[in-house]
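Hello Y.,

Per our agreement to keep a running log of every chain we model this quarter, I'm adding this entry. I've kept the format consistent with earlier entries: sequence first, then predicted structure.
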Amino acid sequence: MYCLRSIILWLSGTLVCVVCGSAWLSAEETSDRLQDTRAVRFFETDVRPLLARSCFGCHSSRAEKLKGGLRLDNRAAILAGGDSGPSLVPGRPDASLLMEAVRYEGLEMPPDRRLSQDDVAKLEEWIRLGAPFPAGNVTRQGPAPETFAITDEDRKYWAYQPIRKPELPQVKDARWNQHPIDQLIYARLAKHNLKPNLPATPRQLVRRLYFDLIGLPPTSDQIDAFVEDPSQTAISGLIDHLLSLPQYGERWGRHWLDVVRFAQSNGYERDGEKPFVWRYRDYVIESLNVDKPYDRFVREQLAGDELSDATAESVAATAFYRLGVWDDEPDDARAAEYGGLDDMLSTIGQVFLGQTVGCARCHDHMFDPIAQRDYYELLSFLRNIKFYEKPQYALTSATYAPLAPPREVAKHVVKQRQQLAELEAVRDPADEAARKQIDKSIRKLRQDGGPFKEWTLAVREHGVTPKDTFLLVRGDAGTPREQVEPRFLSVLGNQRAQDPEAAYDMSCGLRTQLADWIASPENPLTARVIANRIWQYHFGRGIVRTPNDFGRAGLPPTHPRLLDWLAAELIENDWSIKHLHKVILRSQTWQMSSATPKDVVHEVDAGNHLFWRQNLRRLDAEAIRDSMLFVSGQLNPKMGGRGFFPKLSSEVLAGQSKPGWGWEVSSLDECNRRSVYIFTKRGVRDPLIESFDYVNTTSSLGVRPVTTVAPQALVLLNGNFVQRVAFSLAKRISQDVGDVPETSIHKLYRLALGRDASLEEIGFALGYLAGQERQFQRVQDIKTFKPDVPDTLKSDYRKRLDRDSYVIGPRNNWDYYPGKWVGGYEAVDALDEDRVPFMLWTRTALASGEVRGKLLLHDATRFGSLLINGKAEGEIFAGTEIRFDPRAQHLRVLQHTNDDLSEVTSIPIDLTATRWIDFKLVVSQSTASLFLDAGASSPTVVIELGRLNQPAYFGVAVSRGAVSFDDFVVPADGVRYHVSTDNADPISTELKAWQSLCVVLMNTNEFLYVD
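Predicted structure for the entry above:
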């Protein structure tokens, strides 16, 4: 039972590791500190501005008249409450009066306008986190007091120190004294009387190299070749080979897309598409593949349109600014604009600098030496950016730019401005007819896109003169205070920006100065941050465990000298990311085993903070999916473009406010592409990808959480995608090998796990296959029909579906029809609840005789029906329906025509869901008699068929849930057809058993973990 035990190990053993790991971490202050600071950061970023904006006017020390005796500007006052009692119960939002008020469930706050659902959710989460509210920050009226000061201690903080390559220690172990990383790691271990773990096996190393660099498993032949020669020379050669593959950019591009909160839609309810944002994804992948220097990579994303050598590619890079969420109908346009700017600045701070700059929007930073003034001085570099708006192919667009060098575009922009100025100059308000004609010409000119055919999402500015920036009281766009000028962080010198130089007469040039400051080798943060990220993806944990926060609210580096050495090495080697890969992967530290022996090492450093071993890592969501496609032989290597839309189940679609909105239908070949090309819609995500911890596209995702939860097992065992690739793998085995089971098992193991099966595994597999084949033989005659779309669908999505897409069920000799859908509000089609999708068995027409079988209504089934005397009129059923309605506990007989539906009779009967119902339907030329339960002597109902359709067919309909049939016999042409076994191209029970074994192997630890 080797494979079955492996599944149990993954499901239960990993849970044990998680529980035990939690126990180890709970003994350490770092875990509690991390959790607390995240909660406080959430309060400072999301909750305090909300309270200041919506509540403090009536419930704070600055309120002219305190209402309800309630103050919400400090924690003690919140807990004490007002006239109605305590306003909240920490950790229990549903028991908190504040939540009752903002939900309008009794009290109504704010009284003039309800909070948005997003704001209500933020308050709920804040209370669930224990309602953190740091002391000493009660909101005051008037100008902020000038009490903020940066101390020498602040300036001496490790992250703000210049990067200097440390002197390398000499260590006693000769093997660990040959590589700078190993020397620095070993020296720390020696201080704690620890020794490094044993090396990983060659098999583990080659698998680790492939997954780390390209996110795909090695083939069995590639593993065998490496095992024969696992020398350091061979390792170096393999590293160089993998780094040269285009799959490298896809793998590491996905990491970067996490960090920059990449998505292809705007979020919020409509969640509309961001056109051409995929060009940014392709830019990232290509940049990594060509090993673009990281400092150039930074400059292009922040100011690619302003660089002296700007290209079409660098313009596309500035879509970085457009990746955030966007509400196309904001309640307050001015607040939304500043919210967009805050998203840009906060993301820049976290992504490139490891600084939570956004926490200083409303007040001085709670933990770090970043004043509120610092925030707005940095914001000055971005203030001239046009706010996101609906894209248009025009030179004046705020969000589109021609995919061409800016120097070329500028010529047409200048020409257009001159033409607009000439029109404005002759525009005479007194001459209405002439004015209207000129206005028409102006509108047409503003919508002109010039000669450019290709466009990209990009940053655009208001013009060559930068807009003024003001410090906002409490971060409120409606309360500007004094004007500020562009400056860099005070703790790093507070250098004032130079007078900006206009770039190509289209922008002011301030972003170039910001990019140059961030990408400078003198900046102590930038190289450290990216070096830490690279280390994190090779070890599963960074040297700094909070990669987006190098401040005091984050965690300090476990090996500060090592981090400095890596950062300096990166800078010295032209900011080459590939060089840093090679340095790390050639170290003994990275090549250690991830095994955890039960000895003193395990007790002293259970969390592996000192890196005495490699970390045991599960594959991430994309690597799991891509590996399944790869081993099944289905992986489509096509790169680039808009991406593809995985097929979504009815349950997933139903989660949208308008099911199918913004989703499309892709071919199977397209759906077999790598996961990095999945269309990333904020409101809808592929269940497999989401289940395995890709859960955040609204803000920078520095680290994906790694969870082990039951839905992951359900997806891997029962998910449609897994079943599909397992079937492809099973067919691949049968086609490549033939009928020798042992040979097929070896082939399967080599494809899925990269090795031969052991004798024990062969024995298990043979027994498993035999058992599964018996089980499938027992149920092979059962045919199940299950709706695969919800009852409402966006019209444009429904139009993309073919007739077979509405219901899952047997295909051959069955014709599928969508039923009657009615267009409704906002182009949403609703299914007529009485004229649902149906299936007709069309091998031959129904004749007089007996229809026999068993019927099973699954849980949640609204109804299941037998259709007789049936035909399709367009997409709608015409004929007689015998409906089994478990909710009403009635048997209903309905007569359908193309235009009408009438109930013939309705009879109360016991219809228990999940219980098989024996039925016999005796059909003659004019009547049909239905007998329920075996041995019934008299019919439950006799149905007058009226005029017979020619030809007439037998069929099935189902609404929600599912309906199954067994022992299904239909008379036709003087022959009794066994519908249950009638399938021109059935999947053999043997192939289904192999499919099941493939699923088992793809659920083993050996498949799902790197080592």
